[in-house]
Amino acid sequence: MSPSFPALIGTARRAVDFALGVNVMLKRRMFDPLRPDRAVRSALDVLKFGPFAGVVMHSARTRPDAGAIVDERGELTFGQLDEQSNALARGLANLGLEPGDVIAVLARDHRGMVLTLLAAGKLGVRSVLMNTGFAKPQFAYVAEREKVKAVLHDSEFLDLMGAIPSEIPRVLTWVDEKDHADPSIPTIESLGADCHTGPLPAPAKPGGLVVLTSGTTGTPKGAPRDRVSPFASAQFIDRVPLPTNGTMLMAAPIFHGTGLSQFTLGLALGNRVVFQQRRFDPEKTLANITAYRANSLVLVPTMLQRMLDLEPEILARYDPSTIEVVFAAGSAIAPDIVIRALDYFNDSLYNLYGSTECAVMTVATPEELRTAPTTAGRAPVGIRIVLLDENRKPITEPNTTGTIFVDNGFAFSGYTDGRTKEIVDGMMSSGDVGHFDDDGLLYIDGRDDDMIVSGGENVFPLEVENLIAGRDDIFEAAVIGVDDREFGKRLRAFVVPGPDSRRDAQEIKDYVKANLARYKVPREVIFLDELPRNATGKLLRKALIEKEIDAS
Fold first, then answer.
1. Across the strands, what pairs with 128?
2. 324: how many CB neighbours lie within 10 A of its CB?
3. pTM of the model
4. Per-residue confidence band for 27, with pLDDT thresholds at 50, 70 and 90
5. Distance between CA atoms of residues 59 and 69, nearest Å
6. 120: closest CA among 84, 79, 92, 153?
7. Which domain holds residue 217?
8. What is the rounded distance in angstroms from the CA atom of residue 331 to the CA atom of residue 114?
9. What is the pLDDT of residue 237?
10. Is there a domain that residue 36 lies in?
């Protein structure tokens, strides 16, 4: 049977996307056209061992003495990372792990986390990246669901280990004396101490990674990252000019997609990656930018806000002039934070819109954010975005809201529990609704399931939140819908006030009424010291919905 016309169109598109991706990588010097042998070998390593291990193996061959990472214990070169992870992979094999097995990794950003992921890739073991904010029930549930055979973790998480069967082996990735770890528990150093550091044979297939969703509305789902290609990086660098052979400051946790993708890409571009001291500190981040003369900074929006909310005299102490790219992703950025970030970091903010499931969708550049601070930007090479109405028909008119669907060859293939996202004509739903403006820029109006129907009117919280958070006396805001006998749902706003706020609920309501339609005015305004967020900075709306409110 001859292929259908749509299939031929799809094949042609993929060929064009491949060519465009190669061109982007050539322009960014991600491989040397004069040394095609190196490019081919690097591509084969990525296909055999996965992108993370493949990137480090390439650099270990081409510049083994170059600095790769810096953490609290100092610097490791690419050669050291390669050799130490080879030894650790053999140590894990001696522990009984085999290709195809699954390990849980519960660690902060440091060499132990990096060596664990490298060793797992070389052994063909799948790594489930656990959230450092997990409580015991979440950790136990995910470990059982993913059929975890061993756990590699920092000593600070010893208490969580009581939630899983005692026969599951534990290995410590980082040890702090204050945690009083049992000395009989092996460490990654002790496992690899007497093991050979030479190259390992390739596994039958890459072990892969499982990145967990944020779990803001329930138990985190597992999203495998099994689609391996050396050309996936083109989607990032097409619109984000990450520096090469510089210094990247990694503030975002690498157990999540934002940090992991940019960490891998930073190494691929020849950067030395500097980790924070395991926990985010806004002033320490600025100090590290100055001390290391960092060229790029990777973070999530809440980190950016905490930095910019420092007192002016603190901000003035440090020199951000070396920064060429501030890469932010993971959640929406309030418009006032966008402008303040552009001002402080000299128009270097790039905001990525993506998800664990769909991968990259769009990127907003500094120029776009200057003129439209709430835009999500445009799709990079190889990605197509469409809006579909409730009948899943294409929306072609600008400024018309619809559900966002994405065509990205590197999207996930389904959750580890067998479920998947909605698919229409080969395109995957992001779960968000949005619109394009007259210039083709995308805007996110909110989550499809966050929409509040109050008195028959549809309200997306993000618009109200941005308005309230844009006031000079407010740090941030969140809006939810709560049950109401008369209107079905009524709006309740949770507001984190700044030091100059009068904490006047009626004033906030009047402000919204003066700027938005009447039905978008919150019926209640609750002041909080902070909003509940997970370890990657995403707002936990479920916690706000379940929060008991004093009616007095």
1. 104, 210
2. 16
3. 0.82
4. low
5. 13
6. 92
7. 77-227
8. 25
9. 75
10. no
